[in-house]
Recover the amino acids of this structure.
């Protein structure tokens, strides 16, 4: 483990100054912080009302961010922004094709450059449907679709958590439904709900993809499904309150396993459990054909440890060679494999009941190379991270100010530095 407390303190102090200037200038405008630097900056986006950042993609000619916007007295709608690599906004779009609130969870693009944004569509209080919107590469609306677990018109809560895309340009939406698979078990609170869609937003039929799966008598929450390699197996990560079978109880456990090509859960339980509170966070394929899972284990109030682990097809994708990163007030949110080796983890660190942006870089064995905190007196919500070709790091999320919230874009150097 390599640390440099002096350097990290300087970065955090500088970041606090940036956030102070940000707060002083964060009125309802598209203006950004000056001066502009090509290889590091903090920018924010939005007009009147509140905006948030949830997903980020790197395109050949810029950076795309998806989130929400809400005007005073209105409901959450989809907000899409494109910026150049210096953080200057090229365009932004606000979509009003549905009147129900839409809460964005993520975004992917296909091989043609079209964008797909997944959101929860709230059709009644605490009752949601899966929603996905398709645009062209410039944000022009193409089509949208809404999905739910149909049960003779009865309203259920179907909540999407993530969207991914496979090598065949099929979309995978993953989440959970209160419309459970086994209707006879009243204690079965929720089951995993996943959809495989064509690029025309048509769901693959039931006999080709198992939409609802789960363990009996438990709350099963799907987090994410990825295709481990082109044409290869799928891998699932989620959270359950089912026991791990050791006799020890926990509020929630991590669940992770390969999925058959029809989305069917495997025979038997594949649960990674302890006596702590574990929640699934992210899963990514690696260039070597493995997958890396990111999750959090909470031991008490404001006490959470970030975990990383490998899984590979040769060993039936059982999580192994994992490592607990040595931070007890951090929450892992997003992970990417660096093109220069190792992994970059985006998280949040809790300081005086406020959240700051937390960046960690590890080697391929998950040993920490550097860490840094970015933030000030405001509350910053980290959402997703990406890496540029030169190794620079870009992050989107939401900063909560005194009277409003804004989508932000942070770009750091490859070493996590944010300094002139």
């Amino acid at each position: 483990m390599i640390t440099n407390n002096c350097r990290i303190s300087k970065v955090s102090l500088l970041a606090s100054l940036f956030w102070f200037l940000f707060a002083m200038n964060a009125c309802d405008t598209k203006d950004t912080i000056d001066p502009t630097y090509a290889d590091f900056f903090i920018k924010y986006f939005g007009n009147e009302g509140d905006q948030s950042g949830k997903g980020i993609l790197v395109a050949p000619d810029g950076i795309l961010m998806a989130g929400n916007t809400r005007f005073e007295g209105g409901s959450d709608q989809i907000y899409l922004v494109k910026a150049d690599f210096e953080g200057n906004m090229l365009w932004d779009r606000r979509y009003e094709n549905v009147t129900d609130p839409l809460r964005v969870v993520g975004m992917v693009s296909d091989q043609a450059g079209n964008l797909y944004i997944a959101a929860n569509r709230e059709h009644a209080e605490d009752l949601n449907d899966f929603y996905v919107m398709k645009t062209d590469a410039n944000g022009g609306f193409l089509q949208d679709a809404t999905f739910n677990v149909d049960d003779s018109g009865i309203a259920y809560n179907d909540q999407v958590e993530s969207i991914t895309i496979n090598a065949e340009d099929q979309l995978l939406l993953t989440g959970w439904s209160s419309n459970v698979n086994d209707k006879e078990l009243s204690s079965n609170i929720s089951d995993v709900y996943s959809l495989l869609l064509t690029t025309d937003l048509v769901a693959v039929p039931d006999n080709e993809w198992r939409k609802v799966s789960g363990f009996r008598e438990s709350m099963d929450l799907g987090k994410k499904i990825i295709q481990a390699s082109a044409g290869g197996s799928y891998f699932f990560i989620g959270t359950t309150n089912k026991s791990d079978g050791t006799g020890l109880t926990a509020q929630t456990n991590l669940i992770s396993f390969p999925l058959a090509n029809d989305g069917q859960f495997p025979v038997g339980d594949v649960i990674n459990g302890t006596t702590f509170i574990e929640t699934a966070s992210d899963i990514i394929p690696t260039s070597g054909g493995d997958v890396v899972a990111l999750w959090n284990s909470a031991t008490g109030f404001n006490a959470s440890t970030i975990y990383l682990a490998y899984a590979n097809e040769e060993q039936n994708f059982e999580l192994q060679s994992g490592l607990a990163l040595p931070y007890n007030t951090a929450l892992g949110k997003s992970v990417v494999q660096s093109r220069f080796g190792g992994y970059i983890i985006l998280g949040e660190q809790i300081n005086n009941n406020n959240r700051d942006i937390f960046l960690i870089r590890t080697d391929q064995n998950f040993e920490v190379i550097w860490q840094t905190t970015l933030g000030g007196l405001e509350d910053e919500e980290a959402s997703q991270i990406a890496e540029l070709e030169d190794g620079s790091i870009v992050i989107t999320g939401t900063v909560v100010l005194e009277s409003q919230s804004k989508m932000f874009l942070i770009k750091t150097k490859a070493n996590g530095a944010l300094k002139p």
Summary: The two ends are 27 Å apart (CA to CA). The chain has one domain: 5-412.
